[in-house]
Each structure stands twice: as C-alpha cells, then as structure tokens.
Design goal:
The protein is α+β, with helices and mostly antiparallel strands. The chain contains 7 helices and 4 strands; from the N terminus they run αβαββαααααβ. Strands 1, 2, 3 and 4 form a 4-stranded antiparallel beta sheet that branches. The longest helix is centred in the middle third of the chain and has 14 residues. The chain is globular.
Length: 171
Amino acid sequence: AILTADCLSLQATTAAEGRGTTTPFTLFGAPWLSAHALAAALNPDADVAPACFRAAWFTPTWFKYNGSDCEGVAWVRAARGDFATGIRILSAVRTQAPAGKFAWDGAWFGHPGHQLIDEYAGTPRLRQMLDAGTPWRTIATAFAADEASFRQSRRRFLLYPSAGWAEVDRV
C-alpha cells in the first residue's frame, strides 16, 4: 500500500505502474525508457527522499503495454509513502522519456489528457510545474503545507499509526 501511493500518479501518464505483472506498483517503466538511465536518475536523491531503485525489465500480461517488453525500475527499498517520492518519480520518468513519448494520459481510467493528474493532485499546479521543468524538490517544497494538512486531516481514518511507517526493505 505504501508503494501504491508513490506510484499512483503514473496512472495518469503514458508510463506503466506495473499492472499486469506479479508485482504491480513495485516496478514501473515503459517500452521507451532506459532502465539504467531511470535508475541512475532516481538514486542520487535517495538521501533526500529515502528510496532506492534498481534497473528492471518486465512484460505486462494485461493493461498498459500488454505483451510489450518494458524497461524501468523496481523498488529495492521504499520510503514511507510520501508526496516527495511520488513527485520525484514523475519528474524522473518525464525527464528520461524520449521526445513525444511521455504524456499526461488518464484515458485508461476514463479521464483523457491531463484531467486525471489534475484530479489526483487536486489542482493543475503540480502538472504545470512538472511541465515547466521545475525541479522535484522545489515542487515538494511548494506543496509541503498542503501535504501536512492532508496528513493531519486523514489521521483519524488511519488503521495504524503513521509512526509505524518505517522504511520497508525488499529482497
């Protein structure tokens, strides 16, 4: 569930979030990405947003890119499901995509174009900042108050205390 929160926004793009594999949301990519380049783009920031990724190759059996060989990354160690990691992922995938391959596309979920990412973010501002090439750290800072407010408002609905969200290690 923690990884789902970080990868969910990929549903609103032309990148795949691992659906159609045995490990959805633990890997993501697309046929047009370079696994090694994406891992290299994501890993230098592990000290700021603690997560670690390794190059991965997968072939979804259904959903986006059904039957296509995809390159991307798999989580080695996950952060605690924070907004910054999700922005970091979106930014890296967008930056690493060849010209014309990355697009905001929520059509798989009945929301064409950029409509889905704007709904997920609650504002078009996130998409606009990413489209403008704003660094992910700047975006995370711009949304820090909103994230804090959301975490506070959802607290009463959590089944488990958020302090229990320590890093999750994967094999």
